[in-house]
Specification:
The complex is a heterodimer. By secondary structure, chain A is of the alpha/beta class. Chain A is built from 21 helices and 23 strands. In chain A, the strands form seven sheets. A four-stranded parallel β-sheet of chain A has the order 3-2-1-4, with helices on both faces. A four-stranded mixed β-sheet of chain A has the order 10-7-13-12. In chain A, a hairpin with a 4-residue loop joins strand 18 (about 560-565) and strand 19 (about 570). Chain B folds into four domains: about 1-70, no CATH class; about 80-240, Up-down Bundle (Substrate Binding Domain Of Dnak, Chain:A, Domain 2), CATH 1.20.1270; about 245-395, 3-Layer(aba) Sandwich (Rossmann fold); about 430-635, Rossmann fold (3-Layer(aba) Sandwich), CATH 3.40.50.2030. Helices cover about 50% and strands about 10% of the residues of chain B. In chain B, the strands form four sheets. Chain B has a six-stranded parallel β-sheet with strand order 6-5-4-7-8-9, sandwiched between helices. In chain B, strands 13-12-11-14-15-16 form a six-stranded parallel β-sheet, with helices on both faces. In chain B, strand 15, helix 27 and strand 16 form a beta-alpha-beta unit. In chain B, helix 7 (about 125-135) crosses helix 8, helix 11 (about 210-240) packs across helix 26 and helix 21 (about 460-475) runs parallel beside helix 28 (about 615-635). In chain B, about 60% of the residues are buried. Classes of the chains: A alpha/beta, B alpha/beta. Chains A and B meet through helix 4 and helix 9 of A and helix 19, helix 20, helix 24 and helix 29 of B.
Chain lengths: ~725, ~650
């Protein structure tokens, strides 16, 4: 910390703490101490305050103790001549700044409830999103965990022009880095500049416009703090662990653009506590020695065309971006971007035309690597706002290639195409749907580039399991229909084979420790009939992943001797889990929520819980934000059981797992299911009906209560009794 | 003036030496000229352990010693030059250890009195440290009061002195590898007093007559100082008087004030000084001073008492060891209040040239011709006031020959281990990580402890100052205690601005980042235990090996004079630190013993002694040792920045 930075940061902290105190006093006068305050839909209260101090701010009155603590952190100003050591006081002042900012922002939510959109997207007249709620945190957090997002840049202020803003944002997007934006410089704001430049902002494109004021920067810190608590399993109040966790695992940095005010310095100093360095475009003093951050703490005066690369280096981040030879930008950040009505140049599938995607393996001599053919009209052959049928067929060959890998490669097509800027892709197989924007076409994007993407990316990610790959894309109706028919035959065969796989007939399961970057104690073991709790990995995926990367996060686990067939416990699995959890967990059961269930990292799709009164279980999906009959919202549940713990009575699982035959069979299986959110019932209803028929209770879905019936155990019980739910007559669930 | 310049490089000192001459007052610098050091004693070749001697067995000068000559070099009892040199050396260790540890014992009894509510003037100032130390010592906290905990803690620690078996409790604070080494070598001290007594016994006529065996007991005794008596003193002083944190103050004779009653506290134990600091601002005392024509009472420190009250209260320092008489020579000193250690007996005769009252306060340390006002912890406030009244009463007695040299320098002190830990990361991220990181990345080359005394046999302050400047120029962070620290402070090395002026670029950049001087004041000589704790904290933070001897660190006492310095040096060496002394070396009479301590010790302890009076050469020896350790750690070359991808993040150990 240079003296100048420390002095400014401490001054800035005084200003913001003063502001918070004033706001709080005014709010107290107006609303009183009992008025509830907080950020929307979160189980982490004001997250920085909760994480650092362990204090829950639920009412205005709760802020008094926080303010007292905040003021105690404010050091005396730095003397000009012979100053006392200033680094530590400035870091403390930075922390005080965040506490103050959370108070200011929480009071803003109280005073102006509609100041922020409180959702993932901007609206027509409001671009300010405000704090990420827990649904966003978990959904986006998963990307941090699995590496599709490598970190985040907290941008304060604005670039000199909107073009520079757009180019910095795009470079960050291409490097898989989230952009969190707050504050203004000379009346301009980075978020607004992006909108002016025609860039789509919001969580889906990873360009997150938190708020117009510098105080919104605290939402970025709240996000990081919650990542440590929800995925890292660090306890609130264990500030040191939360901060070091972020230093080691959350690759974030601050990027102030424009004149650095005292308040900005205060935020930058605060962020250093988390190990997040500052990379500035102005000639502020530098702080190069390492220690609190992994490398430099403050690096300055970086030209805009080098600032992203420099920031990544300073933060110690390795980003490998494959250059895909297509004329538009490419990366996960563009996955969430939408192509809307007026922008569409070409649309295929989605019920409007036929569309199919099909990967098939061939003999080596049948495939010419890199050959890309478009059979039928190219995009340049049709006018704007056209619709065409489309069949994307991919032929692969190689010594390691197995038929089982075909669906895995095929499933990649969705996100790989979606990563291209200006191209939107939805669905898969014969329900695929694609839109190509006119902006993309203007930049030179063609149908053949879909082939270019698939060839390059599949080679890059799955090169170990095949040697050659060619792509043929049909846009002629007859050819497309022919391909749809052929593909449907193949889908049927595949589905039957997968359906036929059982845990009993499989000796080798696979581990998944992908999440250990964020949840170091957690180990998933995936069997054919228990897919990964995050919903992203099934047994076959893990097998392929292991083939591709034999030392990677998916390792074969010989299940070994059966310890408990009913609950699903094997010696080989236990041994593996003990080692891979670094001794934290020595056994768990695959098929039980009651008895030593499998651990959860925090990124599970659903959480099942025992409901003793109904003698059954409930499950809730991540997207459902309200109360559930077990007395906790999803986010509270995830906070309680996440972080690699085995919590009897609760277990994380994937949505697909609900309709798998082994779903909690140790406790009685699917027939125990007494409550699910309506949206989940709708999502998996079709499959659930099939499984229910197998179980001899064809109308099970109608017997399962949802929030329209009630959100407490007492409220749903009469419904279950009326419907004659099978769980009520099953043996007692708790022993 | 020319020959005066050779005596010191400190301008205030130079001026006062000249004034003493004018005032016809005999001072230490004069006696150093008239009284030559005994050359046989200097090399450790004089044995006065029995009445058959004293026997002199000096090394022949100007010629190589033949094996026949060597055989003749024995005392009447047959003791070899080796045994004699080693016995003399071990006795110095015993004396030094006794001094620090007796100080420690006094602190524990004051602490116990405080805990029992018998000393109304004092309170527990650092509750956190009390609880931490209690936890370390396995004392139950539960919902017991601080006083209850303190009583049990005090009683546990007082037993450390008289313990006969087992080992000292604080040894467990050392790196595990070091503890095992001590046990393996049989040098883990059992009880503080027991080791001193055994050292005295084994050096008695006709007992232990194997120099290697003697020196093992020397180590065991010294460790009972550093990891025993000294450490106990520091920790309890922190609990009672507050753990030091950064504080600004001033140093040199210029802190004395013409228009105030000047009182200097001199010696080593802080209890009285603490109370004088409070009482000097007492309205009644201030009013009394005013009634005598003074504006108030100006308290300043001298020697290690000065360091104690500087570190905790920012009370200015008048000077180091060789300036004690000179503060009287100003003619502006009303009273010098002394307790124990490093008090020159000549104070009384110097005071006779002026009006100064020399007041002894400790029953263990009286001086002929001085006034004795015994200080009793139980009535601390009254005692302090009585002393101050004597000083105030003396104010009107100032004579005409008053001259206070203008020199005073700003400094920042207060760098305790706990404070360094905080300063490197703030409340939420406190750790030694930034220090280790910057050592690993080479901005900081290493860390040196430069400690010790002032010695009239060399140019005052020059040796340490030259060494310290050479070290920081080469990016070595310097930690200091005692009178050595004061030499740097007077020269302006203890303000943050000194970093850009004197330190190498790498060290300067770290100092600038943290806002610290390149030379850190860690307290009194008893607080060298803080350096041991800091070194252990560096080991524990990781990346720099697993023992103190792996660290790129070195120690030095370039202007040492007291036996305490020898004890300190030996506990540093036995803790694994390469330690260089200047001025003179007390085992030169035996090449074998000297060689053993300078070379073979490294194989035994990982740390060893060296002697080099030239400060630049000595600094270079330290730097060479630091570089050797850097090489062994594999941090001698600049390393590529590691960029992390997801796989590497997954492999990180659990948070």
């Amino acid at each position: 910390m240079s003296k100048i930075i420390a002095s400014a940061a401490i001054r800035g902290a005084y200003k913001l703490v003063g502001q918070a105190e004033k706001k709080w006093q005014e709010a107290m006068d107006k609303w009183g101490a009992k008025e509830p305050v907080g950020f929307p839909n979160t189980a982490y209260y004001l997250p920085v305050i909760y994480g650092m101090l362990g204090l829950k701010v639920e009412k205005l009155g709760d802020m008094e103790a926080v303010l007292k603590r905040t003021k105690s952190l404010l050091p005396p100003p730095v003397k000009e001549l012979h100053p006392l050591p200033y680094l530590a006081p400035a870091l403390d002042a930075g922390m005080a700044t965040f506490f103050a900012e959370e108070i200011i922002e929480a009071i803003r939510y109280l005073e102006q409830p509609d100041f922020y959109t409180k959702q993932e997207d901007i609206t027509d007249n409001n671009i300010w999103l405000g704090a990420a709620d827990d649904i966003i945190l978990r959904k986006r957090g998963v990307e941090f965990v699995d590496g599709t997002a490598t970190g985040f840049a907290a941008i304060l202020g604005a670039a000199p022009t909107k073009e520079i803003a757009a180019s910095i944002a795009q470079e960050l997007q291409r490097k898989n880095i989230y952009v969190f934006m707050a504050g203004e410089n000379e009346g301009k704001r980075f978020s607004e500049q992006l909108v002016e430049a025609g860039v789509q902002i919001g969580w889906p494109t990873r360009l997150v416009s938190f708020g117009p004021d510098v105080t919104a920067a605290v939402f970025a810190m709240g996000f990081a703090t919650r990542v440590a608590m929800s995925f890292g399993g660090v306890q609130p109040g264990d500030y040191r662990k939360i901060l070091i966790y972020n230093k080691d695992r959350t690759f974030a940095f601050a990027m102030p653009l424009g004149f650095v005010t005292d308040e900005w310095y205060a935020n930058a100093a605060g962020a250093i506590n988390w190990g997040f360095p500052t990379i500035a475009d102005t000639p502020i003093p530098q702080v190069l020695p390492s220690g609190i951050c992994t490398y430099e703490h403050v690096v300055s005066n970086i030209p805009h065309d080098k600032i992203v690369a420099r920031a990544i280096e300073v933060r110690g981040l390795k980003v490998t971006v494959a250059e895909i030879p297509i004329p538009v930008a490419y990366g996960p950040a563009f996955e969430g971007e939408r192509v809307r009505g007026d922008d569409i140049y070409l649309e295929c599938g989605g019920g409007r035309t036929h569309m199919v995607e099909w990967v098939t393996s061939k003999r080596m001599e049948e495939v010419e690597d890199g050959k890309i053919e478009v059979i039928g009209p190219e995009i340049t052959d049709v006018p704007i706002k056209s619709k065409l049928p489309m069949a994307i067929t991919v032929q692969v060959a190689g010594r390691q290639m197995q038929e089982d890998y075909e669906p895995i490669l095929e499933r990649q097509i969705h996100h790989l195409i979606n990563y291209a800027q200006g191209v939107m892709h939805i669905g898969q197989r014969d329900i695929a749907w694609i839109r190509i924007s006119k902006q993309a076409v203007e930049k030179g994007f063609r149908i053949k580039h879909i082939g270019t993407i698939l060839h390059a990316k599949l080679h890059q990610d799955f090169g170990r399991i095949f040697d050659k790959l060619q792509v043929t894309i049909y846009t002629e109706p007859e050819k497309v229909d022919e391909m749809v028919a052929k593909a449907r035959e193949v889908y049927k065969v595949r589905d039957t084979r997968i359906e036929g796989m059982t845990d009993e007939s499989t000796e080798m399961y696979y581990s998944c420790t992908l999440c250990q970057s964020f949840a170091p104690g957690h180990v998933c073991v995936i069997s054919p009939e228990r897919t990964g709790l995050c919903g992203s990995y099934n047994w076959m995926d893990c097998k392929a992943s292991n083939e591709i990367n034999p030392t990677g996060p998916n390792q074969p686990v010989p299940k070994g001797e059966v310890i408990d067939a009913k609950l699903g416990q094997w010696k080989g699995v236990n041994d593996f889990v003990f080692k891979a959890s670094r001794g934290k967990v020595d056994h768990y059961n695959f098929y039980s929520v009651v008895t030593d269930p499998m651990t959860t990292c925090g990124c599970c799709e659903c959480i099942a819980a025992v409901l003793p009164l109904s003698n059954g279980i409930m499950t809730v999906n991540r997207e459902f934000a309200s109360e559930t009959p077990c007395g906790m919202k999803f986010t509270t549940l995830a906070g309680t059981i996440g972080g690699g713990l085995s919590s009897p009575g609760f277990v994380g699982h994937g949505k697909y797992n609900i309709t798998q035959r082994k779903f909690l069979v140790g406790d009685g299986g699917l027939l125990r299911m007494v409550w699910m959110p309506k949206m989940l019932k709708e999502e998996i209803g079709a499959r659930l009906k099939v499984r229910a028929r197998e179980l001899g209770v064809p109308n099970l879905l109608d017997m399962i209560a949802d929030e329209t019936v009630g959100s407490t155990e007492e409220a749903i019980l009469p419904f279950l009794q009326e419907k004659g739910h099978p769980a009520l007559t099953m043996p007692p669930i708790l022993g | 003036m020319a020959e005066v310049v050779k005596k010191s490089i400190d301008q205030a000192t130079i001026e006062m030496i000249a004034k003493a001459k004018t005032d016809e007052c005999n001072i230490v610098f004069d006696r150093a000229e008239t009284t030559k050091a005994c050359p046989i004693g200097a090399e450790g070749s004089c044995c006065s352990m029995c009445a058959m001697g004293p026997c002199r067995v000096p090394l022949p000068r100007g010629k190589e010693e033949t094996p026949e000559d060597k055989k003749k070099r024995r005392g009447v009892c047959g003791a070899t030059a080796e045994t004699i040199a080693a016995r003399n050396f071990v006795r110095k260790i015993a004396a030094g250890t006794a001094a620090h540890s007796d100080h420690g014992r006094r602190v524990v009894s004051a602490f116990l009195d405080l805990a029992k509510g018998k000393t109304p003037g004092y309170q527990i100032k650092d509750e956190q440290k009390l609880l931490q130390l209690a936890l370390d010592m396995g004392i139950k906290i539960g919902d017991r009061s601080n006083e209850e905990i303190a009583i049990e803690l005090g009683e546990t620690l007082i037993r450390e002195f008289g313990k006969q078996e087992g080992e000292l409790a604080f040894l467990k604070r050392a790196p595990l590898k070091r503890q095992e080494l001590w046990r393996k070598l049989g040098v883990a001290p059992r009880g503080i007093d027991r080791e001193v007594v055994e050292a005295m016994h084994r050096t008695h006529m006709g007992v232990d007559q194997d120099y290697q065996s003697l020196l093992l007991q020397g180590s065991r005794t010294a460790l009972a100082d550093g990891w025993g008596g000294s450490m106990i003193a520091t920790d309890l002083q922190d609990i009672m008087f507050g753990t030091p944190s950064p504080v600004a103050s001033q140093i040199n004779l210029g802190v004395l004030k013409e228009d105030e009653v000047n009182v200097i506290i001199h010696g080593h134990e802080p209890q009285l000084a603490e109370m004088l600091a409070v009482m000097s601002r007492d309205p009644e005392i201030v009013a009394y001073a005013k009634s005598k024509g003074a504006k108030g009472v100006n308290l300043a420190g001298m020697c290690c008492t000065a360091n104690e009250v500087l570190m905790r209260h920012g009370i200015p320092i008048a000077g180091n060891f060789l300036q004690q008489e000179l503060s009287i020579v100003t003619g502006a000193l009303e009273a010098m209040v002394v307790d124990v250690q490093c008090i020159m007996q000549s104070l009384v005769s110097v005071a006779q040239c002026y009006h100064t009252k020399i007041i002894t306060t400790d029953p263990r340390a009286k001086m002929e011709g001085a006034m004795h006002i015994e200080f009793d912890d139980h009535h601390a406030a009254e005692g302090a006031k009585a002393i101050l009244r004597v000083a105030i009463d003396n104010f009107p007695n100032r004579k005409k020959n008053v001259y206070i040299p203008p020199q005073k320098t700003d400094l920042i002190a207060g760098f305790s281990h706990e404070t360094i830990n905080y300063l490197l990361g703030g409340l939420f991220r406190a750790s030694y990580r930034p220090l280790n990181d910057n050592i690993i990345n080479g901005r900081i080359r290493g860390v040196a402890g430069v400690v010790g005394c002032s010695n009239a046999r060399v140019t005052h302050d020059e040796v340490q100052l030259t060494m310290v400047k050479e070290l920081i120029k080469n990016d070595v962070l310097v930690l200091q205690t005692g009178c050595a620290a004061m030499a740097s402070a007077k020269a302006g090395l203890m303000v943050p601005e000194a970093a850009s002026q004197y330190a190498g670029e790498g060290l300067a950049s770290v100092c600038e980042a943290v806002g610290i001087p390149p030379v850190l004041h860690m307290g009194a000589c008893i607080d060298n235990s803080r350096i041991l704790i800091a070194a252990t904290a560096m080991v524990k933070d990781g990346g720099l090996g697993d023992d103190i001897s792996d660290l790129p660190v070195a120690g030095a006492a370039p202007e040492w004079m007291s036996e305490k310095a020898i004890a300190i040096g030996q506990y540093f060496v036995a803790s694994g630190v390469f330690t260089v002394f200047g001025v003179t070396w007390p085992t030169m009479g035996s090449k074998e013993v000297t060689n053993y301590m300078f070379k073979d010790f490294e194989k035994i302890y990982g740390g060893m002694w060296a002697f080099e009076p030239d400060p630049i050469k000595a600094a270079q020896l330290m730097i060479a040792h630091i570089d050797k350790k850097r090489k062994a750690l594999g941090i001698d070359k600049s390393r590529e920045r590691v960029l992390y991808d997801m796989t590497m993040r997954r492999q990180l150990e659990g948070a």
